[in-house]
Amino acid sequence: MSEMFAKVALLGVGLIGSSMAHAMRRAGLAGHIAGYSHRIETVDLARTVGFADSLYTDAAACVKDADLVVLCTPVGTFKALAEEIAPVLKPGAILSDAGSVKGAVIRDVGPFVPEGVHFIPAHPIAGTEQSGPTAGFAELFDGRWCILTPPEETDPQAVAKLKAFWEALGSNVEVMDAHRHDLVLAITSHVPHLIAYNIVGTADDLENVTEGEVIKYSAGGFRDFTRIAASDPTMWRDIFLNNKEAVLEVLGRFGEDLSALQRAIRWGDGETLYNLFARTRAIRRSIIDAGQDTASPNFGRGEKK
Ligand SMILES: NC(=O)c1ccc[n+]([C@@H]2O[C@H](COP(=O)([O-])OP(=O)(O)OC[C@H]3O[C@@H](n4cnc5c(N)ncnc54)[C@H](O)[C@@H]3O)[C@@H](O)[C@H]2O)c1
Ligand SMILES: O=C(O)C(=O)C[C@]1(C(=O)O)C=C[C@@H](O)C=C1
């Protein structure tokens, strides 16, 4: 693969920023990779790992002359960063991000984008519960979706270039409306994380009652929840504060469905329980059949269809 951008600036060098850098290097996509973090300790750590050509604690210095700028910090930081870098963005550059919500990014970053800069929000649907510059790896985006949510007036050539970039990082790319993205991700990612945070918190509160046995005997299902609930607190706080409407809508439906299950258990309605569990088992199997569960510990070990 040949160079697509002479200089790429990654604002944020945690799991996503560092994985992008590793994947760009693997494919030879950038002439120069510049990285930024507000903390000198993070910059020092990133330097030790060695995935960037230059590193800064000053965002404006990092983006100078960059042809592609990607915001890879928690979404709550985007507005202040956009305001800071706007005056030095290179005309013709693409300004993108990796944030897990999209409507709020358009709201917060859009007003600062200078004339002549192409603003194309993006979201790689790939991650782990790890964070920081040592967490990244080149294969993170392989075979995963990346969703682009360009505002309507965006130059199609710039969208095509960013699409080709994410494909070269290993992703399958879809273009979607930001509002739809936020609703889809609320049910597939955001509410599942909230459920994990909640169940692990409840279990921890129950430790007094169970004399430490919840954690001691945690295996299987509960262990999977603890992995998800170990995800970065700042990142997830910002996601819930910035996808409020869609998350509350999905939680409303979730609460109603949970009440229906509660009622079925109370009244011994086995048919309702069985029918739901059979339906959800079929969904799991369709995900396995589509080869989309590369994150599963059972992936490639012949999980039963
Ligand atoms: N982790 C995932 O699974 C995942 C997946 C897809 C998208 N995302 C999105 O990508 C972005 C980065 O996530 P990550 O997992 O790489 O996080 P991370 O915690 O691993 O890295 C965040 C980076 O942002 C910097 N940062 C933190 N607070 C800052 C602040 N106040 N000002 C400036 N810089 C700051 C940190 O120094 C670090 O370099 C987030 O917007 C997140 O929603 C995450
Ligand atoms: O696999 C995980 O650990 C993740 O949480 C990754 C995950 C997800 O929910 O799928 C988390 C947040 C992102 O915005 C995208 C991907």
UniProtKB/TrEMBL annotation:
Keywords: Oxidoreductase. It comes from the Bacteria. The keyword Oxidoreductase applies. InterPro entries: 6-PGluconate_DH-like_C_sf, NAD(P)-bd_dom_sf, PDH_C, PDH_N, Preph/Arog_dehydrog, Prephen_DH. It holds the Pfam family PDH_C. Residues 6-295 form the Prephenate/arogenate dehydrogenase domain. PANTHER family: PREPHENATE DEHYDROGENASE, PREPHENATE DEHYDROGENASE [NADP(+)]. This is Prephenate/arogenate dehydrogenase family protein. It comes from Rhizomicrobium electricum.
